[in-house]
């Protein structure tokens, strides 16, 4: 029996619909409501697409949104100064820096510069630390969306073997922490792991975020596993593909996310939730999620 499709777009649309109702109430009963500022450096086409999607989602549900674009030549001090100005702007509740950034802009320091309470992408070390300890910090948007997808399957996390392929600060590490906090036994691999199949084959929950087209094949997946594909790649023909060989892996998995319309829409929905929650925590509005 082929896997059930984890339709991230449908789940995300439902979340956004509920948030829109909450924001309508917020606008009718508060003088302050959420505002998100997305910062883009340069004109990378993929970044522009992602930024516009976030801006569109904000407008559709009722979050004020602003895109601040800077040339690739902006100096490091000037860039940090711009973030500092947004930190001090009380009308701004969320700040998101769109990746990738030019090499001369130190990623780690950039995320540390964003005010903790406005870090709606959950990249600040303080938020990572709170999540490490199982406390309530702002969670990274993509891993948060992944957990929502997993919860929609009705899976009982306790005692499940979870394998995460990928070790980035954006997806791999935070999703590992979230799965540990839910009671899973978690193994972290990467695209260079020796005999990767021996690990993935034991996974009840398999999350793949390695950035390598069709890295995971049918023979590497345990029958009945839940497979989450975070990859967004282009193959040799320029066609969009994930990290998982979808057409064949769906023959053995119980649930699987497609690419696109899987994890991507959930990232945006989680970002909207984080922005509203940040606004609430700052005491600027009556919204809640």
From TrEMBL:
Pathway: One-carbon metabolism; tetrahydrofolate interconversion. GO terms for molecular function: methenyltetrahydrofolate cyclohydrolase activity; methylenetetrahydrofolate dehydrogenase (NADP+) activity. Keywords: Amino-acid biosynthesis, Histidine biosynthesis, Hydrolase, Methionine biosynthesis, Multifunctional enzyme, NADP, One-carbon metabolism, Oxidoreductase, Purine biosynthesis. Its EC number is 1.5.1.5, 3.5.4.9. It comes from the Archaea. SUPFAM superfamilies: Aminoacid dehydrogenase-like, N-terminal domain, NAD(P)-binding Rossmann-fold domains. CDD domains: NAD_bind_m-THF_DH_Cyclohyd. Residues 140-282 form the Tetrahydrofolate dehydrogenase/cyclohydrolase NAD(P)-binding domain. GO terms for biological process: L-histidine biosynthetic process; methionine biosynthetic process; purine nucleotide biosynthetic process; tetrahydrofolate interconversion. It catalyses: (6R)-5,10-methenyltetrahydrofolate + H2O = (6R)-10-formyltetrahydrofolate + H(+); (6R)-5,10-methylene-5,6,7,8-tetrahydrofolate + NADP(+) = (6R)-5,10-methenyltetrahydrofolate + NADPH. The keyword Thylakoid does not apply. One of its GO terms (cellular component) is cytosol. It holds the Pfam family THF_DHG_CYH_C. InterPro entries: Aminoacid_DH-like_N_sf (IPR046346), NAD(P)-bd_dom_sf (IPR036291), THF_DH/CycHdrlase (IPR000672), THF_DH/CycHdrlase_cat_dom (IPR020630), THF_DH/CycHdrlase_CS (IPR020867), THF_DH/CycHdrlase_NAD-bd_dom (IPR020631). Residues 6-121 form the Tetrahydrofolate dehydrogenase/cyclohydrolase catalytic domain. NADP(+) binds at residues 166-168. Homodimer. Belongs to the tetrahydrofolate dehydrogenase/cyclohydrolase family. Catalyzes the oxidation of 5,10-methylenetetrahydrofolate to 5,10-methenyltetrahydrofolate and then the hydrolysis of 5,10-methenyltetrahydrofolate to 10-formyltetrahydrofolate. This is Bifunctional protein FolD. It comes from Candidatus Iainarchaeum sp. The gene is folD.
């Amino acid at each position: 029996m082929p896997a059930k499709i984890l339709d991230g777009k449908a789940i995300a649309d439902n979340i956004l619909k509920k948030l829109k109702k909450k924001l309508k109430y917020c606008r009718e009963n508060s003088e302050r409501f959420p505002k998100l500022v997305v910062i883009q450096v340069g004109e990378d086409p993929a970044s522009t697409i992602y930024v516009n999607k976030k801006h569109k989602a904000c407008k559709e549900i009722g979050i004020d949104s602003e895109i601040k674009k800077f040339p690739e030549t902006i100096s490091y001090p000037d860039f940090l100064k711009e973030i500092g100005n947004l930190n001090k702007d009380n009308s701004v509740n969320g700040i998101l820096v769109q990746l990738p950034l030019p090499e001369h802009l130190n990623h780690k320091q950039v995320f540390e510069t964003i005010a903790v309470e406005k870090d709606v992408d959950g990249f600040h070390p303080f938020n990572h630390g709170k999540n490490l300890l199982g406390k309530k910090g702002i969670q990274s948007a993509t891993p948060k969306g992944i957990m929502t997808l997993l919860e929609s399957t009705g899976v009982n996390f306790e005692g499940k073997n979870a394998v995460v392929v990928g070790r980035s600060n954006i997806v791999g590490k935070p999703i590992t922490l979230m799965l540990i906090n839910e009671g899973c036994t978690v193994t972290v691999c990467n695209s260079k792991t020796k005999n990767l199949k021996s690990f993935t084959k034991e996974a009840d929950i398999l999350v793949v975020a390695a950035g390598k087209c069709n890295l995971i094949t049918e023979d590497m997946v345990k029958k009945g596993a839940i497979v989450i594909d975070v990859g967004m790649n282009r193959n040799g023909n320029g066609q969009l593909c994930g990290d998982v060989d979808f057409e064949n892996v769906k023959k053995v998995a119980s649930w699987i996310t497609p690419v696109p319309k899987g994890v991507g829409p959930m990232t945006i929905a989680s970002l909207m939730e984080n922005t509203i929650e940040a606004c609430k925590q700052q005491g600027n509005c009556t919204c809640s999620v």
